[in-house]
Amino acid sequence: LNSLKLPVKVKAGFLGSVKLKVPWSRLGQEPVLVYLDRIFILAEPATDVEGCSEDAVQEVKRTRVREMEMKLLESQQQLNSELNSSWLGSFISTVIGNIKLSIGNIHIRYEDIERYFNFCLVDVSFRVHIRIP
Questions:
Q1: Spatial distance between the Cα atoms of 108 and 94, rounded to a whole number of angstroms
Q2: Dihedral (C-alpha) 117, 107, 98, 80: value to the nearest 10 degrees?
Q3: Could you give the maximum distance between any two Cα atoms of the chain, in Å?
Q4: What totals of helices (H) and strands (E) does the chain contain, helices first?
Q5: Mind giving me the DSSP string for 106-118?
Q6: Among 20, 50, 76, 83, which has the highest number of CB atoms less than 10 A from its own CB?
Q7: Mean pLDDT along residues 66-72
Q8: What is d(CA 24, CA 33) in angstroms, rounded to the nearest whole number?
Q9: How far is the CA of 8 from the CAs of 40, 60, 84, in angstroms?
């Protein structure tokens, strides 16, 4: 979040466990499973953007997201061109393009001490299957 220059900063964070389940005998045919569990995030308002108007903050957010999307696309295209030139590269692309991500027990707390405002999300869980063609 801090790299997006949003009006929120992460004060503290904790990741309880990361588990990988790799189907070694069927790698490339079955997805690699990634489990993230017990994620705790404490966020607070960022002080360096308080003087900005809401419109200016939104424009900064949009600009940052566009910049990051462009960088991601450029790096992905470069990686794809390098990897697809070999059998190993093609295999790695297949494995990376077929990942199942499962995130459980997320606890996000937002605290604004100056405005006496607190918000908390507890025990949120979700699963995502990432498939890149």
A1: 33
A2: 50
A3: 57
A4: 2, 4
A5: EEEEEEETTTTEE
A6: 83
A7: 81
A8: 12
A9: 16, 13, 39
Spatial contact of 103 and 5, defined as CB atoms under 8 Å apart: no
Q: Can you read off the two tokens belonging to residue 80?
A: 């794809």
- Tell if the pTM clears 0.85, that is, is over it: no
- For 121, left (φ over 0), alpha (ψ -120 to 50), or beta? beta
Cα separations in angstroms, 67 against 5, 37, 46, 76, 133: 12, 30, 21, 14, 23
Residue 91 CA: distances (Å) to CA of 76, 98, 119: 15, 11, 44
Amino acid letter, residue 32: V
Question: Contact, 111 vs 44, CB < 8 A?
Answer: yes
Partners of residue 124 on adjacent β-strands: 106
pLDDT (0 to 100) of residue 95 = 76
> What tokens were used for 31?
């997805």
Which residue bears the tokens 């308002």?
45
Question: How far, rounded to the nearest angstrom, does the alpha carbon of residue 68 sit from its chain's CA centroid?
Answer: 12
